[in-house]
Amino acid sequence: MSAKMTKEPSGQGRHAVDAPPAAANAVHPVDPRLLVRQQGFKGYLTESLRKLRSGELGSLPVVLGLAIIWAIFQIKDSAFLSAENLSNLSINIVGTGLIAVGIVFVLLLGEIDLSVGSVSGLSAAIFAVLNVNQGMPEWQAVLVAIGSGALIGVVQGFFFAKVGVPAFVVTLAGLLAWNGLMLQVLGSSGTINIDDSGFVAKLTSYYFTDVGAAYGLAAAAVLLYFLTAFSDNRRRARAAIPSRPTSEIVLRTVGLAVPTFLAAYVLNQYKGLPLALLIFLAVIVLLEFVLRRTPYGRKIFALGGSVEAASRSGINVARVRISVFAISGGMAAIGGLFIASQIAAANQSAGGGNLLMNAIAAAVIGGTSLFGGRGSTWSALLGSLVIGSISSGMALLGVAAAVNFMITGAVLLAAAVIDSISRRTQKVSGRA
Amino acid sequence: MSATPVLALRGISKRFGAVQALTDVELEIHAGEVVALVGDNGAGKSTLVKVIAGVGPADDGVIEWEGRPVQVARPHDAQHLGVATVYQDLALCDNLDVVGNLFLGREIRRFGVLDEVEMERRSRELLNTLSIRIPSVRIPIASLSGGQRQTVAIARSLLGEPKVVILDEPTAALGVEQTAQVLDLVERLRERGLGVILISHNMADVKAVADRVGVLRLGRNNGFFDVRSTSQEEIIAAITGATDNAVTRRRARSPEASK
Ligand SMILES: Nc1ncnc2c1ncn2[C@@H]1O[C@H](COP(=O)(O)OP(=O)(O)OP(=O)(O)O)[C@@H](O)[C@H]1O
Ligand SMILES: [Mg+2]
């Protein structure tokens, strides 16, 4: 612990535990010396600055990094920020991004899942074999594929949570085993083309061409944000606990509205709102809600903070761990279907290459901590945007994949360094 | 004081590999009674706490709750009975804020969703009634001082309206003022009719608030004493296992220090 003083300012004397507060200004249990937030907008600014200084960087580094990357590529090639390229980028990131969402959950526990690449490939293979070769209805094949991913997660989670094998070993074994199973499932043909007109093929090729779709979604998102923040604030005010000034809520809403409507505008310049992007955003919002607002999500964060504290407070540690690996496996399977959708096939190389690395890198670059207990599903979007932008820009400039790999590797290291340093700063300023 | 103890331990034994941490330990706590549990480092106090709290169940022996034998195999069982525990190592989640820690494992829900507003309101209310002062209920536990963490851990134990509260060295990390507050708190719990088990190495604290003192020595009971009719020397003798011990020898060398 830090050597912060625990003694009260002198002259208050000893008083009974149930004695009424000594002074009128002691109505709230707030130490007079610390963090008493000024009311109003100025308070918001000073509070934000203080957080930044103490290492709570949030998504600031990744947003800055993204801006720099985009600026560089735009200077090199003016096609980079074209509506077409950005629209394609928004679809290309979805497969990796969905896998990264699952990785975020695992990272929150302070663990890692190395099997997600193989699981995504296996899921695509299962879907293709069932749907194309066996003639199973598409939606059933999709459910079986996703279910297999989740089941694999349960199995891996069992070995980790119940047997006590370190997660990285279990999932390393999985990386190999599920890849083998995929080759087995695909059989001798090696590649199975999926139905071009089917639902899975549409996942990454369908656009809501009506301009109202993109704008409508943007408007709905902004409105939803404003209303929840506003009503939340009203409840806080009614319960007589500190609430945000309305100016802060308005500012945050505007801060959300600008990029959202800009994105909608750009997407409408090309073919409209891509279905893939809509699904990606929906998954992020839903799972972020689960993490922040449900008792289940609170358990995940608690486990990332202290397993001992979590289990003593009655949390079933093994069950939460297994369920998180199931989510990771399930998300990997869903991501695999999107990747298969893009190439309209399931093949032997699916789930290989740098997919696993990119998915983990996306989560970390986006700001989810490698040390557990800190993170958000939004980091999957931000991180996969960074990685996707780099490879898209490199492709545009005609740079070899070798350079792409090296740059992505450097970005991942930079993100991990920021994570580690911000954790240390937080320790120094007593926040971690 | 009622005749049946709220909580009684009968013949509790517990081993860790080669270490016999507890052997045939007996303990009774009545409602409205503060029992101090003392003993040297490694005597088995914390181990006994973990047995009662369901964190490290006993190998042998019976736990009776209000006269009936009960199973305490998991933390949940103990919480369900009405036993609240503040562990020596606190066990708080550094990444969660004060509210999150206070309500960990018993979050208030509203339509199945965490009700942060209500939890924050109750947290402030609780910390207020306990006169606990911390910078903000919305900062991560990691940014609190040792004493502040201690008070949060104690507040946390009181949320579930327990009947028995176990405090494992609650004042060890505290300053003068906070120690006094914790002792006041213990007395207040007794007035409310709760049973309190207070573990402490500080004889002054023990003499100040406890009704009875139970001594553990090398994992065994080594006597129960009524605080009012027992001298500090007798208790220390029971702790160290001899009337001639390091403490008495030291006192003999400097008689004025013992007053
Ligand atoms: N998890 C464990 N594994 C092995 N041995 C243990 C474990 N926990 C406690 N022990 C042993 O059991 C004995 C009692 O330990 P315990 O922590 O209960 O002591 P204590 O009375 O609380 O001491 P202190 O005053 O230092 O807190 C010690 O010999 C200790 O080494
Ligand atoms: Mg102890």
Automatic annotation (TrEMBL), chain A:
Compartments, as annotated in UniProt: Cell membrane
Main location: membrane
Any GO MF annotation of the entry: transmembrane transporter activity
Membrane topology designation: Multi-pass membrane protein
Keywords: Cell inner membrane, Cell membrane, Membrane, Sugar transport, Transmembrane, Transmembrane helix, Transport
Transmembrane segments: 57-75, 87-109, 116-133, 139-160, 167-186, 206-228, 249-267, 273-291, 322-343, 355-373, 380-399, 405-422
Protein name: Xylose transport system permease protein XylH
